[in-house]
């Protein structure tokens, strides 16, 4: 049949063809809109029951043949009791693309789920209310693995959804909720051309009352993957999740919230190691940590960590800011000498025998750290020591630390400032520089208001009475790995010193100042510019047994009955090898004493004589060691 004959045949039967074509079209439309939804509904419910063992129901199915759109409404998947809903879905809409025909792969223009509700229950460790479905699917015969499925799903949207999680496996149970769940993924594909296009995922939800959201760009399922995400989390209640830690922890977290605003980038390459980088803010608020017995340990108001760039795999940490406000530490030492923080450490296992392994592990790259700014404000440390008799309590207040440009890079210099106050008018301040590689540091410091009598709990085993007075000092110090430690311009000030001993004897000094103190570890040399004593009274006695009364300030060890020990001959000791270490060279340039008076009573006589010196003035200097040298001396007194 040629073309002319074909055209003539079409003209002759065109009415019949139109009638038949229209009838087929109407039949197709009626089938697609009336019959096909019924078939889909019935077969879907049967397939779900067969694969999951759970009853499922669909209220309504609609299919639009013109837009190639399938809509399901009122879907339910029930629990094994066939009464309680496990998954409920208000509406599912799938819009197929006509390009599926020539691509030989399903292409979905739109996939939207509205009002999804899921009820999850954890009944035991690793067991959930859907575990029976997983067990049933795992028992089915495995199909042979083929190639990567070819598909393209576009404009994926989940909205107005919620998830309820009832955790019955933890003590007292925990319930978690996810509300206002919104998810948008514009594109996921394994088709090569489409896989080169970036998807822009977005996620938002209210998790246990805390808002969480992220958005970004990603290119999944391609030969090389690139993913960029922005993660936002607001006021996540941390104690709510403590029960989900895989192991027991020796602390209680009474309060604390976590907020995140991070940019995460993950990249995999064919010719080099993957990269995982983080940037942005991590914030903790109102953290309160206690021991299991509810004893306070640590708390702080707020911690902000702003990451400039953190490369986890290559161990590069660049932090723009670390700010900690309101840190409060409770440090306690019990009568055995153990700190409360030591009780949190796990028990040390018995040392295992060393076994040499021939295999070599790949060494981790060295840590590269940079902290541009670190600040601690309004900190406190409370210390309670129960070991000495009577105990000791003290508190550091208004702790402030400022640090800039801390880096592990070679010769990178950082600067710092530290200050705090004590609970008895003590004050400390220090500032300087530090280098981590090679390690070195400088410091200019001052300390004032130290009350000597507060150290009595630690001296009562050595002394019979406390020493009273105040101490202050200031100076400069430095340390380098090459030269060791050094001190310059150190000054020590003691005021109102008082110590009582014997029978009403005592030493009282108005002020004792040591100035211009220097020390060099490299040269093993120390020097004091001046020792100045101003005003005071010293009262001494020689007791009837011939001992000075001042020696009564030292507590004598308790006498114990000792068994006679047979002397054991000791082998001759070889002379120690000579070393190049120099003996400590010291120098005191000036010593000045003014306004001092003394009183001495000799109690070995029946009528003890008393000798007094008042208004003592003493001036000397040039005291040296280990080699002594001539020194000038001026002395005057009223006898």
Structural topology:
Blueprint: H1 3-12, H2 14-52, E1 56-64, E2 69-78, E3 85-96, H3 100-103, E4 107-124, E5 127-128, H4 131-139, E6 152-167, E7 174-189, H5 192-195, E8 202-207, E9 210-219, E10 226-237, E11 251-267, E12 275-291, E13 296-311, E14 316-325, E15 328-333, E16 368-385, E17 392-407, E18 413-422, E19 427-436, E20 439-451, H6 456-459, E21 468-480, E22 484-501, E23 505-520, E24 525-542, E25 585-602, E26 610-625, E27 633-638
- Residue stretches low in confidence (pLDDT < 50, at least 5 long) are none
Range of strand content:
over 45%
Number of strands: 27
Q: Tell me the number of helical segments per DSSP (H or I, 4 or more residues long).
A: 6
What general form does the structure show? Answer: elongated
N-to-C CA distance: 153 Å
Indicate the structural class: mainly beta
Report the helical percentage.
10-25%
Structure description:
By secondary structure, the protein is mostly beta strands. 11% of the residues lie in helices and 55% in strands. The protein has 6 helices and 27 strands. The chain has a 27-stranded mixed sheet that branches.
